[in-house]
Amino acid sequence: QVQLVESGGGLVQTGGSLRLSCAASGRFLSINAMSWYRQAPGKQRELVAGITSADSTDYAASVKGRFTISRDNTKNTVYLQMNSLKPEDTAVYYCNVVYKYSYYSFQDVWGQGTQVTVSS
Q1: Distance between CA atoms of 90 and 94, rounded to whole angstroms?
Q2: Going by C-beta distance under 8 Å and a sequence separation of 6 or more, which residues neighbour residue 112?
Q3: What is the DSSP code string of 33-89?
Q4: How far is the CA of 20 from the CAs of 29, 42, 57, in angstroms?
Q5: For 60-82, what is each residue's pLDDT tens digit?
Q6: Rounded to whole angstroms, what are the CA distances from 42 to 15, 25, 38, 39, 87?
Q7: CA of 80: how far to CAs of 25, 30, 69, 72, 105, in Å?
Q8: Which of 7, 18, 45, 114 is the most exposed, having the fewest neighbouring CB atoms within 10 Å of its CB?
Q9: How confident is the model at residue 1, as a pLDDT?
Q10: 42-53 burial by CB neighbour count: b if 16+ within 10 A, else e?
């Protein structure tokens, strides 16, 4: 079983920056894709950014050029650097990790979520 612990959310003014972290722990053979999602009140959860085990990244159009996803495989941690924040970035941010727990089997797990609030 794998657990995720997120940190780094908070309140920031428009134009400010925050860095989210998500650390994985538990029993697994390897970690594959790591992603950040967000969910604003009354809206569906959406993919913000993802990074593969080969460090290939992908971003939602709304955050491209402002957010950067990265990972530290020695710490089993994924980061989301968020710059030039806007009020519309306000949401609960969740990390999602896909891990391998046996030769042929994969599983994904969600973090508990961290609130990001951007004031205008």
Answers
A1: 13
A2: 4, 5, 6, 94
A3: EEEEEEE-TTS--EEEEEE-TT--EEE-TTTTTTEEEEEETTTTEEEEEE-S--GGG
A4: 24, 23, 16
A5: 999 999 999 999 999 999 999 99
A6: 24, 31, 12, 8, 15
A7: 18, 21, 5, 12, 27
A8: 7
A9: 86
A10: eeeeeebbbbee
Token pair for residue 80? Answer: 């989301």
The label of the residue with tokens 């959406």 reads: 46
Buried b (16+ CB within 10 A) or exposed e, 70-97: ebeeeebbbbbebeebeeebbbbbbbbb
pLDDT, position 70: 98
> If residue 118 lies in a helix (H) or strand (E), which one and from where to where?
strand 114-119
What is the C-alpha to C-alpha distance for residues 89 and 85, in angstroms, rounded to an integer? Answer: 6
Question: Has residue 14 got a pLDDT over 90?
Answer: yes
* Number of residues in the chain: 120
